Amino acid sequence: MRTPLNKSRNEKKREAKRAVKWGMDLAQFPPPQIKLIL
Q: Hey, is 38 helix, strand or coil?
């Protein structure tokens, strides 16, 4: 069994990766579309 601390660290890494991917996806849109999404 993994410790909760280890699990939360892995979750943080996963969330960080997701945030980076989301940011990169947003960067591909033209600015007007970014405003519409947000």
A: coil
Does the predicted TM-score (pTM) go above 0.70? no
Task: Quick: pLDDT tens for 1-38.
Answer: 666 777 788 899 999 999 888 888 877 777 776 677 66
Closest CA to 12 of 28, 26, 4, 23: 4
Residue 3 Ramachandran class (φ > 0 left, ψ -120 to 50 alpha, else beta): beta
DSSP 1-38: ---HHHHHHHHHHHHHHHHHHHHHHHHHS-HHHHHHH-
